[in-house]
Amino acid sequence: MTLVELDKLSKTYPGGDAPAVADFSLEIPSGRLVAFLGPSGCGKTTTLKMIAGLIQPSGGQIRFDGDDILPIPAEKRGAVMVFQNYLLFPYMSVGDNVGFGLKMRGAPKREIKKKVADMLALVKLPDIAKRRPSQLSGGQQQRVALARALITEPRVLLLDEPLSNLDAHLRDEMRELILSIQRELAVTTVFVTHDQEEAVLLADQIALMFDGLLRQYASPAEFYQRPISQRAARFFGGVNFIPARRSDGTVKTSIGDFHFDAEGGARAPHGETVLTIRPEQIQLNAGAGPNTVPGRVRARIYVGRYTRYKIALGEHEVEAISSGEMPGALEVGDEVGVTFPPNRIWIVPA
Ligand SMILES: Nc1ncnc2c1ncn2[C@@H]1O[C@H](COP(=O)(O)OP(=O)(O)O)[C@@H](O)[C@H]1O
Ligand SMILES: [Mg+2]
């Protein structure tokens, strides 16, 4: 179990005008799985390689359980990286690939053989030790790469987009395997992805990155309920945005004034802001209480488990979801009372 601390970590590549990673500070709790999430090019792989010791930072520190590990070479750090494209040794058998780390350490042959078998069983690939990587599917190669990483009992496991080259059903299977192994071994793990759904399904905590900067570090639920900015909210999808002028406890918008609970404004300034609310938190025809404005149904999309509505509110349009099939369901063109419950409104900076 290892606590990983990144402290103002930065990297500017030679000739690069902007830093690939800047002032990245983060604590990864011992034994937990943290996802680095962000669009392509935001610095995820660069950060991972600095933790692994494959590239040197331009500034900042990395500590494992309080110890500075930057002077320690990659092979002695106890941080192993699994690459997106597996990078197995093509001319070695699967067994030799998996046993490679132990062989380099000079472990006895019999021990290597036993641990290779254990590792292949752990990734649910028994009986293939004699095959070559080229005789395996992509999903199998990824599992071999994982077994090769885990055989040395690393303190920190670094996974760089391990699911992105797999097709959909394999991705689900591999994701569940990674999660169950991570839980079983309780190895501190960083999982890099550009897919918010993957991050939400796997991670204890998510580090959201844009342009080389850490923008928010929080639990999956917090990203849904309290995104730090419009961009963060958009990355997690399905959010309504309405420009608003905020004062204490109230926002004024072009469709009316809304009250919000104190918590809802905790991260936003007074003045120009944006009101956000998730489609599933909007109430339709709930009665003429506070925070209710008149709208008109523009579109109705029946999805089965729920129905999605697009509703015109003055110059704005919001999306709302109602679960199941309502008796007397709304039709396109109907007038509808739209309620934003005060405890569901979340204000972000404009
Ligand atoms: N070896 C390199 N030399 C110069 N620039 C690089 C190198 N590797 C990555 N970059 C640049 O650094 C930025 C971050 O890249 P990377 O860490 O690979 O992002 P991600 O993994 O999030 O897609 C990008 O702008 C990329 O072009
Ligand atoms: Mg990358």
Describe the structure.
The chain is α+β, with helices and mostly antiparallel strands. The chain folds into two domains: 4-225, P-loop containing nucleotide triphosphate hydrolases (Rossmann fold); 238-349, Nucleic acid-binding proteins (OB fold (Dihydrolipoamide Acetyltransferase, E2P), Beta Barrel). Helix content is 25%, strand content 33%. The protein has nine helices and 20 strands. The chain has helices at residues 44-52, 74-77, 94-104, 109-122, 138-150, 168-185, 196-202, 220-225, 230-235, and strands spanning 4-11, 21-28, 33-37, 59-64, 67-68, 79-82, 156-160, 188-193, 205-210, 213-218, 240-247, 250-253, 256-259, 271-277, 283-284, 292-302, 306-313, 316-323, 335-339, 346-349. The chain has a six-stranded mixed beta sheet, sandwiched between helices. Helix 3 (94-104) packs across helix 4, helix 3 (94-104) packs parallel to helix 5 (138-150) and helix 4 crosses helix 5. The model has no long low-confidence stretch (mean pLDDT 94). The protein binds adenosine-5'-diphosphate and magnesium ion. The site of magnesium ion has 2 residues, from helix 1.
Morphology call: elongated
**How many individual β-strands?**
20
Biggest β-sheet: strands ordered side by side in the sheet: 6-7-8-3-9-10
Please state the second-level CATH architecture of the largest domain.
Answer: 3-Layer(aba) Sandwich
What characterizes the major β-sheet? Answer: 6 strands, mixed
What is the count of distinct domains? Answer: 2
N-to-C series of helices and strands: EEEHEEHEHHHEHEHEEHHEEEEEEEEEE
Q: What is the number of helical segments per DSSP (H or I, 4+ residues)?
A: 9
Low-confidence stretches: none
Within the CATH hierarchy, at the fold level, what is the topology of the largest domain? Rossmann fold
Give the percentage of residues in beta strands: 25-35%
Identify the bound ligands: adenosine-5'-diphosphate, magnesium ion
Overall pLDDT confidence: 94
Name the CATH homologous superfamily of the largest domain: P-loop containing nucleotide triphosphate hydrolases
* Rg, Cα atoms, Å: 25 Å
Structural class: alpha+beta
Fraction of residues in helix: 25-40%
Task: Tell me the distance between the termini.
Answer: 41 Å
